[in-house]
Amino acid sequence: MRIAPGARVLRTVLVPAADLAGHLFFVVVVGFLLFRVIPGDPVLALTRGRPTTPEQLAALRHEFGLDRSPAVQFADHLRDLLHGDLGISYAYHRPVADLIMERLGPTLLLVGTATVVSIALGGYGGMLAGWRPGGPLDRSSTTVALLLWATPSFWLALILLVAFGSGTDWFPVGGMRSTDPPAGLLAATWDVARHLALPCLSLVAVQYGQYHLLMRSSTAAERAHPYLRLARAKGLPDATVRRRHVLPNALLPTATLALVNAGYVVSGAVAVESVFSWPGLGYLAYEALQTPDLPVLHATFLVFAVPVVVATLLADRLRGRLDPRLADQRGGGDDVKPWPGVSARAGRSRGA
């Protein structure tokens, strides 16, 4: 049954766009209300320790727009967002957009490295565990993965901080670079890598559990299919069967999880960056919370929340393309066509 072009545009473009706009508006409203209930006066916090008159405090509140009604403040906030203006930081007296761009690089370095390492280690470990479900390797590795998954990243970060910050000089426990950074590209890169090790390990350990458990479940499910028994009956080594037949199909749920997790990992890095004073967006949000610096808090909240919303909706839309079996199950084969590479791999795997 063919779908009319107008209905196709409505389903594939207009409905997702309206859904995304509704979610983003909800995020903006929640972020605005959330930071309005934080106890404390930003103006009093900024002038702490300095003699100020009531007239000066009133002038600062007028400058920051805090003397207006909440409805007017929200309207101004929404108008500025639509124009790409994130405001001026109360504490830094600089455009918030500039602060975000300065801190975005360290956060992407930390989150990107942790995500790649956790997918590689968790995927490989989960595939080995799921290849022989119920075996000694499966039981032991799954237990470790469950424990790591249940461990809060900030708690693990504190443990690593205490373990390596007490008299050891293996890994630095604060900042992104040494106070006196070494000269030369290789030496400077090694210096950043040493500072990155402990924050990255804190995030990798928690993410590893998710990818291990998902890959283990996917591998065990793929192993029960007849095409794998046929491949093994042909005399192919287990390593070849796993690489050529199991991995392409078992990776599909992992790819979806990685896409959804992208936003969550960025927001989850707040605690880890705060523990290790990693100069990223999380540490910027922690510093802004002390004031409170409302424009910075609003901006960092959006930076953390928007990727979660976009990634979740995008993963939901792309699941049928990543896995053709989902399109078949929901009868969407006419309007959701699988990517040729994925479809061909799945076909070759089942035709082994």
From TrEMBL:
Subcellular location: Cell membrane
Composition bias type Basic and acidic residues, residue spans: 326-337
Disordered: annotated segments: 326-352
Annotated transmembrane regions: 12-38, 108-131, 143-164, 184-206, 250-276, 296-315
Pfam family, one: BPD_transp_1_N
CDD domains registered for this protein in UniProt: TM_PBP2 (cd06261)
Membrane topology, from the record: Multi-pass membrane protein
Alphabetically ordered keywords of this record: Cell membrane, Membrane, Transmembrane, Transmembrane helix, Transport
Assigned protein family: Belongs to the binding-protein-dependent transport system permease family.
Protein name: Peptide/nickel transport system permease protein
